Amino acid sequence: MADEQSTGEVWLVGAGPGDPGLLTVRGRELLAAADVVVVDRLAGAMLLDLAPPWAEIIHVGKSPVARSWSQEEINAVLVDRACAGSRVVRLKGGDPYVFGRGGEEAEACAAAGVPCGVVPGVTSALAVPALAGVPVTHRDAAQEIVIVSGHLPPGHPRSTVDWAGLAASRATIVVLMGVARLMDIADALLAGGRAAATPVAVIERGATPAQRVLRTTLDALAVDAIAAGVRSPAVIVVGEVAARDDAAADRTRPLAGVRVLVARTRPRPGRLARELRALGADAVETVVARPAPAVDAVAGLTAALAGADGLLFADPDEVAAVVALLRRAGRDVRALAGLTLAAADPRVTAALDALGLSCVTRDGLAAGSPPGQGRVLVVGAAEPPASGEWSVRRVPLLTDVIAEPDPRIVEELRHGDFDVAALASSTAARGTAELYGPLPPDLLVAAMGRRSAEACEAAGLRVDIVPAEPGVRPLAAAVADFVTANRVARGSE
Q: Please, which pLDDT band fits residue 2 given cuts at 50, 70 and 90?
């Protein structure tokens, strides 16, 4: 029998309105298992970090700096890659079936006999107003809501929107893709009977750190939008609810509009950027140093394992380092047989489990120490167990090597595109100074703690922000407090 290429599948995944944290759990699972990702411009670029390193990324969204794909071309690439046996994730901004042409893509897959599934996303029509403090319904002001496309102007022969009927109702009107038609939309609603003083909110780049909100009235909408330089993408809310402003929405995003450069010393995304984004910041991560085997690490590990009873790992990188070093020595993980393996971090437990190795926590290591005097190898920065039953021998396995500078970061620093540089370790401070120093004089520098601050000063970096206690969350909070205090001070001048 001739070999036949098995057909893959296509998943239409809603990426949400812009905040990567609003991607659904199912969407995250599919991205992590994708062979091909076909992505819109409106889908957050940070979500692509969730795809496997080997996944093919195809950008098909309209952009001023890239070619524009027709819907027919997009349909064709989905079918082509799936017929080649790939799992294809079509990552679409918002929800695939809310003005996202997901229905057309599903029909194309069905016509080609390609399995196609849909993962709903958080639609910008509801989420963006909410994140701007605008409730699209309210018991006292609006008990119905209409979501319409502004892509075609009122009166266009292919438009199915009844603008006159909407104007005569009391419904909240949410318009997507309507920035280019603001004047026509306002005129149509006014002509249909909506009051000139009807509140309007225009939310530009909602659910992103660059979000800004224009509040105006229906009769002044076009003039005020031009004066403010409103650009797409934006969500337009027309109705009494647009006058409401939930101040709590701003308090939860104190770093809205603030761009933070986060220096990483590991290739995987870090917690600091996540904490900053949760506070509204546009956190841009860059790797300034990478782990590499220490000098004579093979000989050091081999000698230390002889007669050892336990091995404590600080982080997953050290698990990978031990495996690699054992291979260099012509051995494998069976060399760890008989050792009590311990994890100082839950991620280490997962890394060991993936190798089929069981372990205990650091506290468990202390509680279960063997009779007499045992020995534990403490890898990296892990603290040894608080037990006198173990003698401690540290084995340096990894060292940090400064990475290559990122041309994009160099250019953005030169143009003053960052407000804050956040440095969570001494290595991050040294790497940032070596790759990108001297930093712009108006760039605020935030250091994790005393040791990081000392490393900054030794590298010639001025330190502006240091939390009262070291830690990722305290550092993010300290940046938010500093920025908020500065805004208040400027407002009182």
A: very low
